[in-house]
Queue: 2 jobs
Job 1
Amino acid sequence: MIDTDVLIVGAGPTGLFCAHQLGIIGLKCEIVDNLDKLGGQCIELYPDKPIYDIPAIPECTGEELTNNLIEQIKPFNFKSHLSDRVQEIKNENERWIVKTSKGKEFLTTSIIIAGGVGSFEPRKFPTKNCEKFEGKSVLYSIKDKTIFKDKSVVIFGGGDSALDWAIELSKTSKVTLVHRRDEFRGAPASVEKIKELQKEKKIEVLTKFSIKDVKGNETLESVEIKGDDGEIKSIKADYILGFFGLIMQLGPILEWGLNIDKKLIPVNTENFETNKKRIFAIGDICFYPGKLKLILSGFHEGALAARGCFKYSRPNEKYKLEFTTTSKSVKDRLGIKE
Amino acid sequence: MAKIKYIEHSGKQHEIDVANGLSVMEGAVQNDIPGIDADCGGGMACATCHVYVKEDWFNKLPQKAEGEDDMLDQAYEPSPSSRLSCQIIVSDELNGLVVHLPEKQV
């Protein structure tokens, strides 16, 4: 069991800067995120898009912002636990035991939820019948590509994942690529490659079609697709793959007994604590009168929540505001030698 | 100002006066109309304010924003009449606009 002062749920800019604030005031923290990398929405949704409203940074991309925040918290050597998700919590002697979906256990005094709009999960086919084949012949990610050898694979989507896998699998499988419109949003080079493969008849491309139904009893047999003009086609399929990007879901946090209103968690604005003692919420997921869903608001909220955690971790100490410019102990924590 | 009619998937209708300059998404969210989630808050970074606009109105709306179709690829059951409601900005010309909400957003 990992013992810590604070467990931060969510490694977006708000969670990362909150870790910095915890480090500055001398608390320990661990960070858990469902994505395989730090940065949250900034890195997953808009790594290349410029952001213009970070104080004192006239322009930076989501990726640059993330890298700078990672650099900023480096001195504290906090550990992050990626591709993992908090599952359940239990109150024990004024502390929380937190279990993750991968089976890790934390013993923490406080929890700070910086989960944005939820954890990222693949968007699934809207077709109800797909559920019974899910994980077997209806897949949203690929772990072992050898299972597709010499099989008929129907891939849905128009982004990089769909195109890259269509190109890769066309070497060993019979691939049909289905997309809802003529244009693909994947990298231009991949789009070119797809067109080439189509010309060489190594891949079939059907555009302006979307899924209608899947057929098969025990095993998947075929997939029915419907065109914009109403035309219906049936394609023999051993596997169907869907790459429709990621959606955000609150997931297990909903079961923690927190007040939740329209997917947001109400907090007080003094320390961003929720209705549950020692659970805080900051960033896009929290709500209070006047809330702005901006990164800069998340920074402020994280700074105050960190001080809120201090009271619980050091009940006998009085919190004293220290400046990074002058405080010797803060400089020590930052590893700055004078 | 424009009167906008939001029709839920169940058929339930909401007619709302939305001020010029707001998006059709904001008009829904500020008036607690269920069926539009707007997870990203209007940044065109998700596809949870997805609506359908029938042909008569679709062609009268300003063109889709760059990247809007890329996000719509990731919406729940997109169709040729799909739009992201955060990208439709309200003006007097949109008075009477009708948008249909999908069965769900995620």
Note: The CA atoms of residues 65 and 87 of chain B lie 7 Å apart.
Job 2
Amino acid sequence: MLNPLFWLQAISLAFSQIWANKSRAFLTALGIIVGVASTTAVIAALTGLRARVLTEFESVGASKFFVFPDRPDNAPRNLYPFEKIRVRPEEALAIKEECTLVKAVTPITEVGLDVQQGDKIIDGITVAGIWPDWHVVQNRFVVEGRPFTQIDEDRERQVCLINSDAITELNLPSNPISESILIGGRRFAIVGVVETTQARFFGMNTSSAEIFIPFSVAAKMQDRNFFMRVEGLFTSPDVAEDGQEEVRFVMRRMRGVLPGGVETFNVAAIDRFIEQFKALAAGITAIAGGIVGISLLVGGIGIMNIMLVSVSERTREIGLRKAVGATPMAILLQFLLEAVTLCLVGGFIGIAVGRLAAFGLTKIPGAQLDQADIPLWAVALSFAFSAATGVVFGMFPAIKASRLDPIEALRHE
Amino acid sequence: MAEAASTASSRSAALIEVRALTKIYKVGVETIHALRGLDLAIGRNEMVAIMGSSGSGKSTLMNMLGCLDRPTGGSYLLNGRDVSRMGAGELAQVRNEEIGFVFQSFELLPRQTALENVELPLVYAKGGGRGRRARALAALDRVGLASRVHHRPNQLSGGQRQRVAIARAILNKPSILLADEPTGNLDSATTTEILALFRQLHAEGQTVVIVTHEDEVASHCQRVVRLRDGRVLSDLPVAQDSAGRHLPGVSALAGAKGGAEC
């Protein structure tokens, strides 16, 4: 019914109307500009935060799990003494041998020991006892020398791995392989250097001096009831849930927990933390959506107001257009298009401002939001909401214009 | 009624055929009978003046003839089609294709050039804007404004503005060129020019209906229809109407014009 020329002139008319009333249009669209800008900025910040957090989780490993002792809630302390609930090396072994969904597993026990090299003594360095699979679980490999082998573990060899920070702190030569150091008064040969990862996990810095010895050796150097935990990797992040169940099953059996009995351990997967963070991010996004909803409502009322002004200002023009053959539908569409154009221009400026804000966020020192960016879906959604605002709030003025009696309109002063 | 029937039958091939047209407005509790059973027939390529004092129903009749409004009763056949019961959308299309309006105050869009103003009806035309520029330029050429196509209304004189409006009105080759006091805002010299333009268009085959209250304007037409109280008071060839005194040879004042054959 309506020819292409109509659409062409309606669009150009919409823009020329905005151009002719620049400052008025700007003030009218301000509500939408502010709404879209603030929301896109929030989404950009969230995207940056999410990227950063997920990267950190990723560095820990999305398919990673932990087993540690856990008292049941509200249980009296004396009912579950630590000796009874502590994770034991046999349990780590059982997980290793029986869980099909576990790719690699290692017990870890940490003990603070004095370390001596020549006349340099450092008090209380954290020395960790590990299995060879620790490299796989932690995704940290040796950069020089060799990793631990099962023989080191089985024969309780007095060998150790160190990281570069430890080399510096102990004044060791840059290639310390086959040097030896005293750990807790015993002589250990350095067999390898472990890469230092800059894995900051929520500010926790694991890049200070580290020394690793075989788990069997570390066990011997402590009390009978020493503390240890188990860390492991599932074969893939997808099986995290089933894998957790499998580990739980093995642990229950090892501890003789009957069906319905209380568990004195906890199997936790990184996976769950990611889920929790994603839920949080979704919540914040929803709140941001609410903000944009309110600001678009406010902006929309401004649009409606200005469109009503426009209709009344251009009553004679509407009358003339009707006289030369514009149908009510053509008039309605023209005014609707004008409202939508105004909103889209507002949305466009809003996104531009939001983008600028997102760029600003990446430049804030220490905020670590350098990946803050407005995702494409947010841009699309902003435009869609802006257009919808134009349609909803432009409808009433447009209907009013379309229903004007041409005779009355032409007589209008 | 007998007289109305004979008038209608005598012009059976009429372009405009209005029968027993009534229009009642309700203003608050008051009822105004603007038209009380008006009969009128206008043939193809006539040039008719519709006159009457205010309140005679002449504006209402013009709105009816221009399909801007629907009558309360009676019928209106335009080009054989009954337009008196059409909906707003259909009427808009009839206005677009059959009616060319010329208004007292020109009604040009101020921010658009003469050419764009003339093109306006094509925006709402059914077929779209094929060859629109050529048609608009041809229309502007017909009204003698070929050199002013890119001027905006505020860069044109009153007479030139009305010429643009006339070009816009004739763009879609309408059945009727309907002018409402077309010279009401013009000085006498320009009035003469514009009326000469109407006569020229008429000579080229255009049906022209001019609503006016000025005898001098009416004297340029072939036929003068006078209204009173919503009915036709008189419907005479211009020479027999009182407006005829302005015809050349009848009035010394109008002698200067010459060549008016209406």
Note: The interface with chain A takes residues 63, 66, 68-69, 88-89, 92-93, 95-97, 101, 103, 107, 109, 111, 120-129, 132, 168, 172 of chain B (CB under 8 Å).
